[in-house]
Structures are given as C-alpha cells and as structure tokens.
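Request: Give me one sample?
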Amino acid sequence: MPKILHTADWQIGRQYGRFSPEDAAVLAEARFLSVEHIAALASREQVDAVLVAGDVFDAQTVSDRTIRRLFNALQGYPGPWIMIPGNHDAALAESVWSRAERLSAIPGNAHIILQPGVREFPEQGFAVLGAPLTQRQTHHDLTDWFDRAETPQGLLRIGLAHGSVQGVLAQDIDASNPIAADRAQRARLDYLALGDWHGMKCIDERTWYSGTPEQERFKDNGAGQVLLLTLHTGGQAPSVVPHSITQYHWISWNETLSVASDLQPLIQRLEQLPSNTVLDLTLSGQIDLLGEHHLQQALSVVQGRCRSLQCDRVNLRLIPTHEDIAALHADGYLGEVIEELQAQQQGDQAETAREALVILAGLLRERQMLEAQS
C-alpha cells in the first residue's frame, strides 16, 4: 500500500507587488520554506513518493538562483519527487526546465515529466500517467490518452495533471486546459492528482486538487495544505488526509462602523490576531475624530505584530462631532476648513479630503499639547 504526498502550485518566484517590499520579500521566501516543510513531512511520514501537479515555478523567467534554491529545498526527502510542468512553467522548447537541466540543478531523485507518457516506479508499486503542459493554454483534454494507456499488471495507476475539471469549478476557469470530470473512472485510475486550482478540493473519491501549500489569496478555499494518501489494491478508494503546512493565514475583513460603539469590538478583534496573519481590512461607515485617533493607534500596533496589514478606508467618512471641534479649538477659519473637508468626503476627492482632515486634526492636537507644556 504505497503512501504518497500530493502537492501542486508552488509557484516559486511569485511576486507580491501589492505589498510593501518588506512584506513581499517575506511572503516570497515562505514559498521556499513550504517546500522544505513538504520534504520534512515526506520524510517523517516515510512516503514512497511526492507528486507535484504542475506550476512548480511561477514564471519561465525566474532567476538561476531561484531555480537552484528550489531544487536545494528538496534535499530533506531522498525519495522520488515526480513533477510535471503547469501553465506557469509549461515545457516549452526553451523553458525554466531546460535552463534547470543546463544548470545541472535537478537532483537524481527528481523525475520531471516533460512529455506525455507513463513512468513506471516498480519499487514503489505504481505507474504515473503524466500529462504535462507543453504550452501555456490548450483547449483539448491532455488526459484523454489516459483511457487507452497500458501499465504493467500489478502496478497501481496514478494520473498526474494540471488544468480545470469541467463542469465542477467556476465557469470562468473552464476555458483552457480542460480535464474531464470522470477521467479517473474512465482511465481506471487508482488516483488522479491535480494542480491549477489553488484551494484543496475533492472532485470524487479518487480525484483531488491539493491546492497551493502556502496560502496567497484572501479566499477561504482550503489552501495551505498537502494531501497524504494511502493507495489500496483491489479497487478500494485511496485514503486521503490533508495536512496543513501554511505559514501565513490570509484573512479578509469588511467592517462597517455605524456608531461610536462599533469601534471597540473591532479593536479587540484586531488585538487577538496571531502574528502570522496577513490581513486585508476594508472599513466603511463613519467615525469621529476621537475614534479615528484610537483606530490609528490600534492599526499601528497590529502592523508591528502581524505579518502584514493592508487597510482600505476610502469609504470610512471622518465626521467630527461638535465635541471634537470644540476640543481642537478650531474656531473661525480653521472651523470653516474642517467643515469644508468634511463636506468634500462625499465627492471625487473623498480620500484626499479625509487624509487632509486627519492631518489637520493631528496638527491641532499637537499644538494643544505644546501649549499645555509651555
């Protein structure tokens, strides 16, 4: 009964342009570390092989150093790594894979399937039917030949492919690299290991997407895992157990502040976030100047403790109360400016007006502190 780890969509070399350079570098580094964690898990569980169902690299243009670092990360597991190219790293005539070969970076235990075909692993007890992408997009099912493929008697049949299972995933990703939903049954497969869908997903008892091992989107789709499966003889379905290995948890919050009392529960939730959180926070509604001050302090603390915090406050209107304005001693012209900025938050320059109002309030508050000290 072979034990196998199924993973996919490592996308080594991925860039995180929407993040600050500091956070982007750490998130990119996490993808290398996830491969090291997979190797450690494979050794710990004493699996017979690791299947990597495409998109090992994020692009054909990754650096030579990135290629070497990826294959160095495999060292923690000495058994077979069986990989196919996906749409991001397709096996073109000149590709990241041909560069890796020229660099002599691919270790002997890494089996890269660059052309459709059957690879036999008799010592492990299975044969792999590999359907690599040799171009970025196709509109025919590259696993169709699985149905007619012959494998030695006594070896379990494992399919390895990268694409979109038709009629199951979202419609907008069914356009290219299609895979028949009943391929495992039609091709008499004991297991079909898939990549391309970044979340973990069971298509049927013999067909799974493992998802990317390091979460990289604000979606609750089971990303950040690998699948540990035990294959059985006699036609029995495999046993599949997910293992979470993600380092960072990506969370998206949409919060509306309607009254002053809405702020404190939000701050308490922010204070409870673990340090490995990547938070995308969108705020809407309204807040007064005192509340804005407390919110700024809370966000500053969270930014220092969590991995990353991005906060969109475009639709959070800053509405100073009469008490706010009185406390700032913003009489005369300054009072008129505050009222004008408050009104402009409903126009095209809402974000600019809001920022200007925050700055002005901060300057007035600092002036009060200096006057109090003198």
